[in-house]
Amino acid sequence: MDSALLVHRLHFAFTVTFHYLFPQLTMGLAPLIVVLKWLGVRRHDETYNQAARFWARIFGINFVLGVVTGIPMEFQFGTNWSHFSRFAGGVIGQTLAMEGVFAFFLESAFLGLFLYGEKRLSPRAHLGSAIAVFLGSWLSGYFIIATDAWMQNPVGYERAADGSVQLSSFWELVFNPWAWWQYAHNMSGAAITGAFVMASVGAFYLLWGRHGEHARIFVRTGVIAGCIFSIVQLFPTGDGQGRMLVRYQPVTLAAMEGLFQGQPGAPLVIMGQPDVEARRIDNPFIVPKALSFLTYRRWSARVSGLNEFPEQLWPQNIPLLYYSYHIMVGLGTIFIAVLVVASWLLWRGKLFGTRWILWILLLSLPFPYIANTAGWMTAELGRQPWLVYGLMRTVDGYSKTVSAGNGMFTLLGFMGMYTVLGILFLFLVHREIEHGALGETPTPRVLASEAHAD
Amino acid sequence: METLWFIVVAVMLVAYVVLDGFDLGAGAIYLYAARNSNERRAILRAIGPVWDGNEVWLLAAGGTLYFAFPQLYASSFSGFYLPLMMVLWLLMLRAIGIEFRSHIENPVWQGFFDVVFFGASALLAIFFGAALGNVIRGVPLRSDGYFFEALWTNWRVGPDPGILDWYTVMTGVIALVTLTAHGALYVAMKTENEVNRRARNIALVLWPIQALLTIVSLIATYLIKPQILQNYRTHPIGFLIPILVAGSLAVMFWGIRRQKEKPAFLASGLYIAVMLVGAAFALYPVVLPASTDLSYSLTIYNCAAGRHGLTVGLVWWCIGIALALGYFVYIFRMFRGKVRMEEGGY
Fold this sequence. Notes:
The complex is a heterodimer. Chain A is mainly alpha-helical. Chain A has 13 helices and eight strands. Chain A has two domains: 3-262 and 304-435, no CATH class; 263-303, no CATH class. In chain B, helix 1 (2-33) packs antiparallel against helix 5, helix 4 runs antiparallel to helix 5 and helix 7 (193-224) packs antiparallel against helix 9. Chain B is globular and about 55 Å long. Chain B has helices at 2-33, 37-68, 70-79, 81-101, 107-137, 166-190, 193-224, 230-234, 240-257, 261-283, 307-334, and strands spanning 286-288, 298-299. Chain B is mostly helical. Chain B is built from eleven helices and two strands, in the order ααααααααααββα. At the A-B interface, helix 2, helix 3 and helix 13 of A face helix 2, helix 3, helix 4 and helix 11 of B.
């Protein structure tokens, strides 16, 4: 692999992976904060308002990190992937600019209002600003997904005379069927992160024996929301995403599943190590015919394997793609098991006293992050060797004028910068969690739309 | 249609510089104008509610630039690779400097973030000025529309310039002086007592420097690029621009002397806007001139997106900006009146 290409790919991969740790929590927490706030308003229960305020503070810290690590993503389309931008900017410039104009203004305007305007607003208006923040963050997600979906399944474009692609149908771009499935799957994944983080902090308080009233709200809200979304994650959204692959990227599906030979009644590989050279799975643990059923709803249906596609169309890093996919699906299955058991205990009224399940909830915290990251790696590694599927190869898209040495310089710079940001983030969130939901706003902050006063 | 989008992008960038300019400037005077914790908090309070919203204009302008002129975005962002990455790092440092400073009441912690905030703000002002200098001076574009500039080469304006040469260093200094004065006037307008007095003093000291540098920059620009006056000759209405520049400088001087802080601040904003409009007017229809061969220059015609996309964009852009203005009007009405100390937030 050409080393400049490798550096530019690592550059984007590293910065986007770090970035997405923050928006997945803000997008996941936003609807839960709306629910807490709504319960507080409806039941006139101050405990729910305190809970909403506590999570809004965590949200605020995440939001700052999400913004500062998000700006480099927009820049990198031009700095590191200029040939791609020149080629595709006429189409994806639409969705990226719409994110700025529709989502960023909405989100940044109402976040200040929500975080610091509670005393000026009626409870309903405060709830309204929480809903506006929720809409802004989820809208932002849609425009990004629509951009990625266009790279996975380009629609609504035409070739211009200079070889670039230009928009031919705005509605086809916005209603790309791939985008809707990917969006549903991705947002449900973000909601799982939000739910697990909430439940995990609640479980921590219960095991610690502090902040019991809030802790029970956190665990209850987190477990119920997590249970719903982890099932939605499998069906219909995960299933729908799979069908998109069958239709538009069958070679990616074969690589993800580790299916080297196409066959009727194809087995589903649960575990095993792909040996690409020998075209087989080592130490396989399989469910016979299950892949055919999942793909076509018939046990004997024929599924295409890698052997049916020319090798230059194969994703380049099949083992990593295969593991990303299997880690995502494996963790998703474990989430369903944990949350169904926890929901059952909650229904029976035993959850808050059952220490082993609280321990499991507490220790689950990192895993939804891993699952979401693995999911994105599956999507992006699966798209290779294409940058825009079927239209432009990754090797043709990076900035040819930016040498490997210059790219490495800034990659290392970002690594150092993000290490510092990550430490600061953990430190500040740790303080919030120590203080708990009753703490008298321990975080005086400036990002307040408080003083538009003359 | 291309001209329309040229104007839209230019207006968004001007809005960004005028708006974020004063909080960058407030950062540049921060260590000097505010000496103790309370005074520093007063400055942060003055910019706290708005700096994040101001920065959104940079993102929205960047997104719109990408959408309307993808070729320009691709060429300039990859060509200015190193300085842009440093701008990103400075933006990050500045954001955490403002936001994380007040999380912990500890003089060591706060002192550290104070210096971070000051340094990042001042450097950003210089970087933005140097960037503008590069765009006016021209960059070594090749026939394929790409280029790459090292941070510096021989410090001379020539066919193989670096990001920094004597001309762009000068524009960087002008930007620093201008935005510092802009920020000082904003802080003066928003604060009282000692901070107010120091901020006014800064503006008073900077005014003659700013006026002198304005004249020097016009002469220097004419020296390195005599063709810069072409648009002014064909459209004499452009000569309104230098008149407005002189007028706004005069109003600034009057306002600073008479303690009319608000008119002085608005005049400073007008000065910045008019200087930038003057540069855009001189360049049009070129958006990135080539220092190698003028025919390689990027113009609004050879780097715009397709016609259909630009037309569709006009519809949603108008809707989006109307909505955004609606939010800000709503929030402004919500937060009218004096700051109340008992409210959460600080």
